[in-house]
């Protein structure tokens, strides 16, 4: 079965391409390389001794996308391509809405033209806003607190409208919690362009001496150590969750919505301690004011995903840090 993966050279995209190949799927990769390097795909090719067709294109460019659909018989699409920084989305809402919504519209319109009916979408736990109860179940009301999360909510609604009204469509919406870690091989991992936005790349760059110290946003939350609690999930567990979801949705027309997390919360200080243990390096940090829009605690109720996908995240925090550290030490300059 041939799967088009948008955003295939990005962090989660490249790990999912690896798991798709591992599971015997054929992959056609597209990305505009605004936030990634083609080297990630070359590393996956090296890992599996295979060739993966790649097209450098912006998915908002429908005529370029059509050429890819014309050339390959695409049976399903996994859609990762998008801009993902909450802070940047507040500064650049026009770009975020245009890219995230425009890219999805374009993909769906081309899929429709080519009668391709299986679609998996990367959503985010940020669609839950500040949830009223923890762990977070899929059926609680959604509320975005920034342009990024609102773009995800709008896309989810658009997709459900499109897929509910058409025959034989199979839609999966996967809401990721906090993906971290890297492939066991140390060949692929997270390689942010500038100063990292996410905790683990920041911590590992402090550990390796690239950045002087870690700034922790908020030490006065109502949590046992005062720092925010999140549900960290190994990126390989997340990637395998996509394979399971694809296998479930392609069996029959449906709209599936599932949280992908571990169901366990760890504080920022827990992560710092685990990373210090793994790396044997001290992580200097300063606690500063809370960041606007951040919430105290977020972790998933994974019962629905465990049941419908027959899937469970297996890696623990220590292993996630070990794999992130291996990636960092083997690739101190990322893919370059
Ligand atoms: N990493 C996270 O913490 C996280 C959490 C929840 C949801 N997500 C979602 O998962 C998806 C993948 O995230 P990631 O961490 O791999 O990000 P990433 O930035 O590493 O990957 C996204 C890829 O999409 C590409 N891209 C962006 N706009 C494009 C366009 N218009 N046309 C073609 N390519 C385009 C980028 O070049 C990049 O390679 C995103 O949609 C993101 O919102 C990520």
Can you give a write-up of this model?
- The longest helix has 21 residues, at 93-113.
- This protein has 336 residues and is α/β, with parallel strands linked by helices.
- Strand 5, helix 6 and strand 6 form a beta-alpha-beta unit.
- The protein has a domain at 2-182 and 232-263 and 299-313: Rossmann fold (3-Layer(aba) Sandwich), CATH 3.40.50.
- The radius of gyration is 19 Å and the shape is globular.
- The protein has 11 helices and 13 strands.
- Helix content is 40%, strand content 17%.
- Nicotinamide-adenine-dinucleotide binds next to helix 1, helix 5, strand 5 and strand 7.
Largest sheet: 7 strands, parallel
Going by helix content, strand content and strand pairing, the class is alpha/beta
**End-to-end CA span:** 32 Å
The CATH architecture assignment of the domain at 2-182 and 232-263 and 299-313 turns out to be: 3-Layer(aba) Sandwich
Q: Please state the overall shape, judged from the principal axes of the Cα atoms.
A: globular
Strand adjacency order, main sheet: 3-2-1-4-5-6-11
| Strand percentage | 15-25%
CATH topology of the domain at 2-182 and 232-263 and 299-313: Rossmann fold
pLDDT under 50 segments (min length 5)? none
Overall mean pLDDT? 96
- Please write the CATH class name of the domain at 2-182 and 232-263 and 299-313: Alpha Beta
The tally of strands reads 13
The residue fraction in helices comes out at: 40-55%
Please count the helical segments.
11
CATH superfamily of the domain at 2-182 and 232-263 and 299-313: NAD(P)-binding Rossmann-like Domain
Radius of gyration: 19 Å
SSE sequence, one letter per element: EHEHEHEHHEHEEHEEEHEEHEHH
List ligands, each type once. Answer: nicotinamide-adenine-dinucleotide
């Amino acid at each position: 079965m041939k799967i088009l993966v948008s955003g295939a050279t990005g962090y989660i995209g490249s790990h999912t391409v690896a798991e798709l190949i591992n599971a015997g799927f054929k992959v056609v990769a597209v990305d505009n390389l605004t936030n990634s390097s083609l080297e990630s795909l070359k590393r996956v090719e090296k890992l599996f001794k295979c060739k993966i067709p790649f097209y450098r294109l912006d998915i908002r460019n429908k005529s370029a996308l059509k050429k890819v659909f014309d050339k390959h018989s695409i049976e399903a699409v996994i859609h990762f391509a998008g801009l993902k920084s909450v802070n940047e989305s507040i500064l650049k809402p026009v770009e975020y809405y245009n890219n995230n919504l425009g890219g999805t519209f374009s993909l769906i319109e081309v899929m429709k033209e080519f009668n391709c009916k299986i679609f998996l979408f990367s959503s985010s736990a940020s669609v839950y806003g500040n949830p009223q109860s923890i762990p977070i179940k899929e059926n609680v009301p959604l509320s975005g607190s920034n342009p990024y999360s609102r773009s995800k909510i709008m896309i989810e609604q658009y997709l459900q409208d499109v897929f509910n009204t058409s025959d034989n469509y199979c839609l999966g919406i996967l809401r990721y919690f906090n993906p971290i870690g890297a492939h066991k091989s140390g060949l692929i991992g997270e390689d942010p362009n500038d100063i990292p936005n996410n905790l683990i790349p920041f911590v590992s760059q402090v550990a390796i001496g690239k950045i002087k110290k870690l700034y922790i946003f908020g030490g006065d939350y109502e949590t046992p150590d005062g720092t925010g609690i999140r549900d960290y999930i190994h990126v390989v567990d997340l990637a395998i969750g996509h394979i399971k979801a694809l296998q479930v949705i392609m069996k029959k027309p449906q709209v599936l919505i599932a949280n992908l997390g571990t169901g366990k919360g760890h504080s920022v200080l827990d992560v710092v301690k685990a990373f210090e243990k793994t790396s044997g390096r001290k992580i200097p940090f300063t606690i500063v004011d809370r960041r606007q829009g951040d919430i105290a605690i977020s972790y998933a109720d994974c019962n629905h995903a465990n049941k419908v996908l027959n899937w469970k995240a297996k890696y623990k925090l220590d292993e996630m840090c070990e794999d992130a550290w291996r990636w960092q030490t083997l690739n101190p300059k990322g893919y370059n």
